[in-house]
Amino acid sequence: MSFFKRIKDKLMGNPADEEKLEAIEHDLDSHPQELEEGGEPATTETVVEEPSEQFSPIEDTTESEQSSDIEGTKDLEPPSPIEEEEQLEVQIIEEQPTEEKKPSAWSITQKFKAGLEKTRNSFTSKVNDLVARYRKVDEDFFEELEDLLLQADVGFETVMELMDKLRFEVQRKNIKDTNGIQTLISEKLVEIYEQGEDDLIELNMQPDGELTVILFVGVNGVGKTTTIGKLARRLKSQGKTVVLAAGDTFRAGAIDQLQVWGDRVGCEVIKQSEGSDPAAVMYDAIRAAKNRKADVLICDTAGRLQNKVNLMNELEKVHRVISREIPGAPHEVLLALDATTGQNALVQAQTFKEATNVTGIVLTKLDGTAKGGIVLAIRNKLHIPVKFVGLGEKMDDLQPFDAERYVYGLFADGLDKELQNNEE
Q1: What is the maximum span of the chain, computed from C-alpha positions, in angstroms?
Q2: Backbone torsions φ then ψ of 327, nearest 5 degrees
Q3: What is the C-alpha to C-alpha distance for residues 401 and 112, in angstroms, rounded to an integer?
Q4: Residue 246 and residue 362: Cα distance in Å, rounded?
Q5: Which of 19, 41, 23, 45 is nearest to 32 (CA)?
Q6: What is the C-alpha separation between 397 and 111, in angstroms, rounded?
Q7: Pairing outcome for strands 398-400 and 386-390
Q8: What number of other Cβ atoms are within 10 A of residue 103's Cβ?
Q9: CA-based nearest residue to 149, from 138, 160, 164
Q10: Which residues 6+ apart lie within 8 Å of 317 measured at CB?
Q11: β 212-217/242-247 pair status
Q12: Taking a C-beta distance cutoff of 8 angstroms, is the pair 181, 174 a contact?
C-alpha cells in the first residue's frame, strides 16, 4: 500500500464525517429541550459530562456561587412540575458514569500534527527551502538533506541508513527531480523505524484476573509523575482498575505529587513516609493491589542519574522484590525521557538500558522541541520502541506512538499538498 493511501485510509479517516458529527452535537447543545423520537431527551449522552475532580478552586467557587443564586430565587418563584422533573433527570444523568468517547483516526492524527509543530516549523521549512532550491536530485541535494536531518537530532546512524535507502530508490526509479521527494523520505523513515516489527506500541498487559505491573524509571524533571497520572487515566478509561505505588521516597514532594494525580484520576496511591525503603513500598503496593483485585499497578521510582551506582542498585532491588512477589513482573519497564534534551535523552536511554531491562520509552514534551527526530535516533540505535509520546498538557495528550502519524507530523504541510495534487 502506498504511503499516500495509508495517510488517507488509516491516518486521516474521514474528516468530513467527523465535522458533520461535531456539527450535529453542537446543534443538540443549542437545543437541549428538543426531544427525539420515543420522547427521550436529545442531549442525554452528549451534553452531560462527569464533574471535574479537584481541578480548580475557581471552578468550585463559581459552582457554589451559582447554587447560592439558585437557592436565593426559590422563594421568589417556585419551580413548575416540568422544571422539577427536568432537574431530577439532570441529577440522575450526572450520577451515571459516562464512557470516554473513543477518538477518531483523524483527531489522533491532528494531535501528532499539532504536537510536532515546532519540529515541523524548524525542520520541514528548511526541507521545503531545499526542495525549492534544488529542482534536481543530485549529490549536493543529498548532502544538504543529510545536514538538516542531523540538526533535527535524527542521529548519525539513522541519517546514514536513510541516505543509502534514498540513493538506492532514486537510482532504481530513475527519479530526476525533487517533486514528491518528501513522500519518499517519509516512507523510508517509517521503514527504518518499524524494521519489520509489529505491535511495538502495545503494552504487555496480562490476561483478565491477573495483575499487570508497570515500572517507571527516569531522571528527575522529565515529567515522569505526570506521565504516570495520564497513563493511569488512559487505562481507567479502558475499564481497568489502577493502583499507584509512590516509590520515589527521596525527592521532596514526590509522594504528594503522585497523590494529587491519584486523586485527580481516581486511583488509590500506596505510600509510606518520605525516606522509606522504595522496595518496601513496592511490596506493600503489590499486596494492596492483589487484595483489591486491581488490574494494573503503576510504580513510580526515584531518578538520580548523577548518583548512578546507588540509583541502579536501588532499581535492581525494587525489580527483585517485584519479581519475587509476581513471577515474570514487572511486565513493562518504561523509561521516561524529555524530548527537549535531544542527544542527552539518548545518553540517558543508553545508561538505563545497561542497568535495567527497559521495554519501552515514553517520550515526554515532544510538543516543546524543535528536534523531534530524537525518536528515530532512540529506536534505531538502542532498538527500544517508543510506546507513548507526550504531545501537550491535556490529559489525553499522552498518545500511543505511531510511526506513520509521527512522520506525517514532521512533513504534514508538504504531504498534504502532495496528497492533494495526487488526488487531482
Answers
A1: 85
A2: -55, 135
A3: 9
A4: 19
A5: 41
A6: 7
A7: antiparallel
A8: 14
A9: 160
A10: 278, 279
A11: unpaired
A12: no
Tell me the backbone φ, ψ of residue 220, rounded to 5 degrees.
-65, 145
d(CA 309, CA 315): 10
> Measured between alpha carbons, how far apart are the two ends of the chain, in Å?
19
> Between helices 181-194 and 374-382, what is the axis angle to 10°?
40
Residue with cell 483485585: 293
Please tell me the distance from the alpha carbon of residue 336 to that of residue 219, in angstroms, as a whole number: 8
Quote the pTM value. Answer: 0.75
In tens digits, what is the pLDDT along the chain, a chain of 424 residues?
566 566 667 676 655 555 544 444 445 444 444 433 334 433 333 333 444 344 333 334 334 444 334 344 344 444 444 444 444 333 433 333 434 556 778 888 888 888 888 888 887 778 888 888 888 888 999 999 999 888 888 888 889 988 999 999 998 988 888 887 888 888 888 888 877 565 567 899 999 999 999 999 999 889 999 999 999 999 999 999 999 999 999 887 999 999 999 999 999 999 999 999 999 999 999 999 999 999 999 999 998 665 567 777 888 899 999 999 999 999 999 999 998 888 888 888 888 888 788 999 999 998 888 788 888 888 878 888 899 999 988 888 999 998 888 888 888 877 777 666 666 5
Q: Please count the CA atoms within 13 angstroms of the CA of 284 that sit on its side-chain side.
A: 16
Q: 363, 375 in Cβ contact below 8 A?
A: yes
